[in-house]
């Protein structure tokens, strides 16, 4: 299954925890209007929100970053040192 876009992932995490947008915005210390626009994909996610959301929803920040298409540098380094893993990953998990 493909990783959803970050805005969908954030909304899904919030909803799965039974939090309203206003509750989450308050807990994250962000303006509800900003969080609403982020969850609709109309505003980019700040690094600060990404970090706070990671802590708040208890998910790795890397999972959120992957939804933005950002691959951790250590994973890039591994793949650069072992390019054969690209083929192995595609065979094992399928190509997009």
Tell me briefly what this model is.
By secondary structure, the protein is mainly alpha-helical. Helices cover 66% and strands 0% of the residues. Residues 10-64 form the HTH cro/C1-type domain.
What keywords describe this structure?
96 residues, 434 Repressor (Amino-terminal Domain), 7 helices, Cro/C1-type_HTH
Main sheet summary: none
Output the CATH class name of the domain at 6-69. Mainly Alpha
Spans where pLDDT lies below 50 across 5 or more residues? none
Strand content: under 5%
Structural class: mainly alpha
- Report the CATH topology name of the domain at 6-69: 434 Repressor (Amino-terminal Domain)
| Overall form | elongated
Specify the number of helices.
7
Give the helices and strands as they follow along the chain.
Answer: HHHHHHH
CATH architectural label of the domain at 6-69: Orthogonal Bundle
* Mean pLDDT level: 92
Q: Could you tell me how far the N terminus lies from the C terminus, measured between alpha carbons in angstroms?
A: 10 Å
- Extended strand count: 0
Amount of helix:
55-70%
- Mind telling me the CATH superfamily name of the domain at 6-69? lambda repressor-like DNA-binding domains
Radius of gyration: 16 Å
């Amino acid at each position: 299954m493909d990783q959803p876009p970050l805005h969908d992932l954030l909304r899904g995490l919030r909803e799965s925890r039974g939090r309203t947008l206003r509750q989450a915005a308050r807990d994250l210390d962000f303006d509800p209007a900003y969080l609403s626009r982020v969850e609709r994909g109309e505003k980019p996610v700040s690094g600060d929100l990404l970090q706070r959301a990671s802590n708040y929803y208890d998910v790795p920040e890397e999972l959120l970053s992957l939804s933005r298409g950002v691959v951790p540098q250590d994973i890039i380094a591994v793949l650069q040192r072992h390019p054969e893993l690209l083929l192995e990953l595609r065979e094992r998990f399928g190509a997009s």
